[in-house]
């Protein structure tokens, strides 16, 4: 369930009156569902949206105390999860590829504030926070990173392949841009079923120049599919700045005949407002493109220090001026809902919960040996894993009509 890792922290918190009941948090944890108690509503201005072939929504956003606390806690947990994943990799407990999204937490949190789990979502390989936003647990993320069976891909997929089918999260896709045509197909499914929901198809600026994107735009526009294309523009495709990789890095305009919006992706309230607008537009008029202007603090992947193509001053400057967690934290303090010391105590409890989830994930077993050859054929074909010997096949299929012929040389 969404944010189930937060349950204990909420029950322990000293911030009496500022947290929703634990049953609500475990059920969702975002503003897309109503609070169980009256919460003070406020209006705030976000950075103005920029529109392409569409009139932008208002930059005056309604929110409330409960929603802001939920957003703050969720982003803080996501940040700690990513930093902890980095440590697990350096301790050689996590293996494979690792693409962290610390700094970009405002995008998944803002999106989920506008959506529900009947809307579909598909993401690139920078997918940990998106998975948690879709209702996955941090324990499951850590288990997958460490190759344990309690991970969403049962320890076989790793960082880039997180899924939550029950909540219509279709990955976690490891090939750059591959998810975009698939996300378009998810939109077609919603239209075919006429279910009133949309597909959010997320990719990065590094994939934004691929031909398959424009083929998908064309098909979605011809059929007026309910698809919201989301470009998470963190301004670097691996180590190349967007201005060097794209003749036009204003990605919200790149859909041509597909309307677009520029959005401050470091402000979860701006993201929420844009996604509410985009969902309504997609259901009534067809596809729309959202460019989320965001920033990652880590390098592209665990092998990238992130310091050879940008300066430390640039990274620290973004942290000081635009950090999504600090932004919401300041709103909470300015409205007198908590002071800095109270929030520091809450953060300590949330850190402890992340550490507890890591320890729980470590208790999960590794996949059984037979998983090495499962999911290759529909029924397994009775395949058996032979002892590994140099120069010999690793998989031996039974002979007969469903296996290799006894006289394979005749084929």
From TrEMBL:
Its EC number is 1.2.4.1. The lineage of its organism: Eukaryota, Viridiplantae, Chlorophyta, core chlorophytes, Trebouxiophyceae. Keywords: Oxidoreductase, Thiamine pyrophosphate. GO terms for biological process: pyruvate decarboxylation to acetyl-CoA. Residues 74-368 form the Dehydrogenase E1 component domain. It catalyses: N(6)-[(R)-lipoyl]-L-lysyl-[protein] + pyruvate + H(+) = N(6)-[(R)-S(8)-acetyldihydrolipoyl]-L-lysyl-[protein] + CO2. It is an enzyme of class 1 (oxidoreductase). It holds the Pfam family E1_dh. InterPro entries: DH_E1, PDH_E1_Alpha_Subunit, THDP-binding. It comes from Apatococcus lobatus. This is pyruvate dehydrogenase (acetyl-transferring).
């Amino acid at each position: 369930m969404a944010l189930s890792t937060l349950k204990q922290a909420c029950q322990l918190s000293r911030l009496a009156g500022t947290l929703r009941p634990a049953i609500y948090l475990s059920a969702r944890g975002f503003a897309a569902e109503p609070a169980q108690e009256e919460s003070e509503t406020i209006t705030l201005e976000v950075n103005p949206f920029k529109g392409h072939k569409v009139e932008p929504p208002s930059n005056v956003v309604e929110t409330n105390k409960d929603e802001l606390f939920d957003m703050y806690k969720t982003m803080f947990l996501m940040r700690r999860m990513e930093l902890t994943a980095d440590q697990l990799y350096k301790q050689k407990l996590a293996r494979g590829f690792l693409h962290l999204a610390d700094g970009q937490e405002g995008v998944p949190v803002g999106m989920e504030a506008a959506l529900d789990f009947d809307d579909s979502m598909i993401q690139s390989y920078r997918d940990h926070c998106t998975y948690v936003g879709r209702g996955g647990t941090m324990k499951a993320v850590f288990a997958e990173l460490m190759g344990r069976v309690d991970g969403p891909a049962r320890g076989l997929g790793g960082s880039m392949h997180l899924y939550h089918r029950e909540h219509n999260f279709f990955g976690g896709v490891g090939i750059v841009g591959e998810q975009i045509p698939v996300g378009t197909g998810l939109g077609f499914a919603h239209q075919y079923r006429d279910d009133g929901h949309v597909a959010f198809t997320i990719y990065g600026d590094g994939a934004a120049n691929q031909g398959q994107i424009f083929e998908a735009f064309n098909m979605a526009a011809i059929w007026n599919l309910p698809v919201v294309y989301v470009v998470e523009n963190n301004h670097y495709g691996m180590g190349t700045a967007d201005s060097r990789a794209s003749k036009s890095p204003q990605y919200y305009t790149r859909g041509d005949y597909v309307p677009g919006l520029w959005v401050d992706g470091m402000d979860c309230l701006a993201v929420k407002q844009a996604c509410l607008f985009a969902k309504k537009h997609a259901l009534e008029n067809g596809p729309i493109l959202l460019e989320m202007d965001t920033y990652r603090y880590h390098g592209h992947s665990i092998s990238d220090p992130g310091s050879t193509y940008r300066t430390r001053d640039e990274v620290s400057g973004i942290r000081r001026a635009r950090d999504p967690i600090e932004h919401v934290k300041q709103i909470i303090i300015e409205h007198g809902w908590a002071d800095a010391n109270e929030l520091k105590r809450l953060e300590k409890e949330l850190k402890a919960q992340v550490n507890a989830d890591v320890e729980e994930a470590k208790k999960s077993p590794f996949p059984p040996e037979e998983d090495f050859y499962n999911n290759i054929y529909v029924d397994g074909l009775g395949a058996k894993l032979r002892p590994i010997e140099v120069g010999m096949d690793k998989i031996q299929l039974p002979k007969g009509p469903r296996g290799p012929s006894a006289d394979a040389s005749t084929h």
